[in-house]
Amino acid sequence: MKIDQSNFVVYGLTLILLYPCIVGFVQISNIVSEPDYESFPTSCDDSEFKCSRIAPAPHRSTGESELRFPSTSIRMISESIESWVSEEPLAKEVSRSEGVDYDLHIVVKTKWMRYADDVFFHVSCDGDDAVVWIHSEARTGISDLGVNGERIEDIREHLMTTEFEEIECS
Fold this sequence. Notes:
The protein is an alpha+beta fold and 170 residues long. 34% of the residues lie in helices and 26% in strands. The model has no long low-confidence stretch (mean pLDDT 87).
């Protein structure tokens, strides 16, 4: 089948007109499929190909069960995490809990189709060390095409390259 110029224009215009509808349906599915986690997720069991984590039961990431920062406070780690979040143009904070531990839930949308991915952070003290867990999971679909693993590695790299002042964890 040969496509002439007029057919090409018609197909192109059709795609341009359908794009907002498709993105709208994706946005509706993002809202409908909002996770029902009230705290840090325990595993990726229900979403094997669309979840990555550095936490107990690590999955599709570096294989680490935690990131450990000697003699670092929760406040310094949380400031570093928040600086990473502020650099993400399509990230939005959903919930935060500060106290003995620090928990943060954000939603990061993909650039092209605006699929929502949930990212959870948990920071706690273990003696003088700050311990960080990260969980990133796509809300919809059957695969994240590796996006969550890349995000986990980006966050890990950001935290590991941040210079923290030596202080007792609290």
